[in-house]
């Protein structure tokens, strides 16, 4: 997963729900030095009884905010969506550098 | 065409031959049959020269088709499963943390700070019977779980009861047995059961802090370090433990998320775990509160029951002294006495 262009990750999930699985796994896909390189990661854990859906929103360097529904996308779908935008940014960055 | 060898060499040989502890020969003695010098084909049923009782496998015989595992014992799956079931049966309090890509130095820093925080917990005081409970701070450990094995172990602990299998002809009732496998295979997982609630937690990278006994003081110390929440469980101050505010340790703590716990075979979420950690004085404290409650209730009851008789006695006593004062010479002493008794 391309994480260079991510500036902020906001998650909110109930760990006791099977459907929050993809959201939780997304957090484990961020690199070890994510916080050191300026990515802001906010997590909110919901209590066990809450039936709120888990939410995940990712902000990029160009200001775009992706709101992803982990319950339907799955972890592969989330990564695909994030990478789709990251690749466009990567292309722009490469053109600007070159 | 049926296979020439109906079962594995090991089992057939093992069934045919009796093992004795006194065996010293390294080679299977089956070979000794050939020493009879008979050139024609010879079957075991036609009276072999060596009696069957004399044929035995050495105790350390290793079948060539099943060589010993090359993995280190603690990493073998069988051993891992046994270790997890034993841990689940003997550990009343487990906290589950999701760990997101911690580096080795961060793990070292996290463990160091955990150890330091646990060392500051005061040692347990002697109970009313003079027995000092064991100090558990050195046995509280943070370990990374193999989630799939741990999940299976949870299922075995919850659904497989060895006592129920005793009457069956299959005598194997350990956790690695086929009986255990079939039990958990056929079990229907209920959402409200402990396994049903724990299993969503054990997804992705999960580490566990295991406590050998339920001790809210130690739990509070661990929560203060690994999952601080300011009003009740504040993080250690910068002055008191500078190592905690070390950048490496801090980045390690940021990556650990407390997802839940398993206390006395029940699943607890964050708030539940914090509630257990907030019990003042532990189990003894709870007991003391109960005793106080019962005692104060008893005191109130006795006071209420005593009140009437005390009032009666006071009234009569007052009346007696009054009569005595009236008589003043002892003239109506007997009357006063009779009145009092009435």
From TrEMBL, chain A:
GO MF annotations in UniProt: structural constituent of ribosome
UniProt entry tagged with the keyword RNA-binding: no
Pfam families tied to this protein: MRP_L53 (PF10780)
Xref: InterPro entries: Ribosomal_mL53, Ribosomal_mL53_fung
Gene3D superfamilies: Glutaredoxin
Subcellular locations according to the entry: Mitochondrion
Keyword Ribonucleoprotein belongs to the record: yes
Coiled-coil intervals, chain numbering: none
Keywords of the record: Mitochondrion, Ribonucleoprotein, Ribosomal protein
PANTHER family, per database record: 54S RIBOSOMAL PROTEIN L44, MITOCHONDRIAL (PTHR28236), LARGE RIBOSOMAL SUBUNIT PROTEIN ML53 (PTHR28236:SF1)
Family assignment from sequence similarity: Belongs to the mitochondrion-specific ribosomal protein mL53 family.
Designated name of the protein: Large ribosomal subunit protein mL53
Automatic annotation (TrEMBL), chain B:
Chain intervals for the UniProt region annotation (Disordered): 54-75, 323-342
Annotated Basic and acidic residues bias: 323-335
Family membership noted in the UniProt record: Belongs to the universal ribosomal protein uL10 family.
Organism name: Xylaria arbuscula
Protein name: Uncharacterized protein
Superkingdom in the source lineage: Eukaryota
């Amino acid at each position: 997963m391309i994480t260079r262009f991510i500036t902020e990750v906001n998650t909110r999930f109930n760990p006791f729900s099977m459907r929050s699985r993809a959201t939780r796994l997304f957090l484990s896909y961020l690199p070890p030095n994510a916080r050191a390189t300026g990515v802001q990661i906010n997590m909110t854990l919901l209590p066990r009884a809450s039936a709120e859906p888990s939410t995940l929103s990712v902000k990029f360097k160009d200001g775009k905010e992706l709101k992803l529904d982990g319950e339907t996308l799955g972890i592969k779908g989330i990564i695909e969506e994030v990478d789709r935008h990251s690749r466009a940014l990567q292309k722009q960055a490469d053109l600007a550098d070159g | 065409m049926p296979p020439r060898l109906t079962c594995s060499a090991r089992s057939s040989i093992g069934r045919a031959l009796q093992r004795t502890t006194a065996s010293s020969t390294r080679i299977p003695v089956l070979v000794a049959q050939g020493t009879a010098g008979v050139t024609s084909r010879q079957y075991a049923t036609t009276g072999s020269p060596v009696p069957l009782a004399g044929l035995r496998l050495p105790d350390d015989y290793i079948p060539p088709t099943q060589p010993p595992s090359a993995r280190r014992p603690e990493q073998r799956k069988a051993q891992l499963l046994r270790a997890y079931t034993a841990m689940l049966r003997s550990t009343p309090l487990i906290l589950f943390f999701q760990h997101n890509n911690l580096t080795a130095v961060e793990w070292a820093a996290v463990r160091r700070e955990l150890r330091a925080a646990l060392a500051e917990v005061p040692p347990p005081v002697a109970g009313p019977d003079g027995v000092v409970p064991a100090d558990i701070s050195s046995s509280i450990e943070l370990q990374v779980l193999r989630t799939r094995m741990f999940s299976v172990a949870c299922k075995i602990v919850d659904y497989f009861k060895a006592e129920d299998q005793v009457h069956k002809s299959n005598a194997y009732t350990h956790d690695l047995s086929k009986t255990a496998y079939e039990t958990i295979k056929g079990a229907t997982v209920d959402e409200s059961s402990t396994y049903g609630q724990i299993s969503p937690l054990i997804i992705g990278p999960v580490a566990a802090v295991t406590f050998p006994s339920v001790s809210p003081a130690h739990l509070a110390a661990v929560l203060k370090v690994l999952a601080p929440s300011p009003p009740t469980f504040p993080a250690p101050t910068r002055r008191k433990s500078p190592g905690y505010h070390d950048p490496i340790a801090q980045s390690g703590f940021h990556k650990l998320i407390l997802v839940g716990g398993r206390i006395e075979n029940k699943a607890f979420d964050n708030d539940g775990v914090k509630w257990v950690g907030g019990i003042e004085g532990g189990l003894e404290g709870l007991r003391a509160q109960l005793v106080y409650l019962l005692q104060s209730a008893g005191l109130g009851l006795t006071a209420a029951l005593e009140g009437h008789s005390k009032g009666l006695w006071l009234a009569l006593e007052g009346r007696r002294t009054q009569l005595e004062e009236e008589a003043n010479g002892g003239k109506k002493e007997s009357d006063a006495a009779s009145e009092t008794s009435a």
